[in-house]
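Data availability (excerpt). The following record was deposited with the supplementary files.
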Amino acid sequence: MGIRDRLYTIPRRTTIKQNQSKQVALLSGSGVQCEKIYEFRGMVDFYSNRFPPMKDQHVDVFLKFQNKEENSLGIPIPAGIMRIYQEDSEGMLQFAGEDRVDHTPKDEEIRLRMGKAFDVVADRIQKDYKKVSDRVHEAEFEIIVRNHKEQDVVVDIVEPMPADWSVLSKSHDFVKKDAHTAVFSVPVPKDGEATVTYRVRVRY
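Predicted structure:
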């Protein structure tokens, strides 16, 4: 069974001449409340091998918002490129980034990847690695996040865990987002840093 075509209604009258191509705005919204997310993501390979220190890694930035009527939206959004603009100090709109979105029904969340934060960086250091047996591995990590912004931020350290895993020790609490993902949400003060350490055992 193939993907069914989707029909979207243009909210205003328009005309198209024969053999003419025309771009029209399908939707717009103002006053949409967005949340900026800072994310530093690991890889599943980190838990079954030795890795050298990874320094000055720029943190990913996402925008998250709800496609709801009370958030000035609440309409079906077609798949395609969504562009984001923000006002500069003179009130002029400046291009801030773009990301491809899937077909999104109303009342669902939309998450857009904006790129890298040049002023929020992180180091990942594998402090220890031990192969307990052919199927069991242990690894310990230290992650240092530095915030050069003029305001505090929260960085989500997202760790994709393979197989059957258990955290043996940790400096910060984490949320088990799903069966293979641990997320440490870490406050990082302006012009400051935060350090997260944890040790995990993985059974393949």
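Summary of structural features: The first strand starts at residue 34 and ends at 41.
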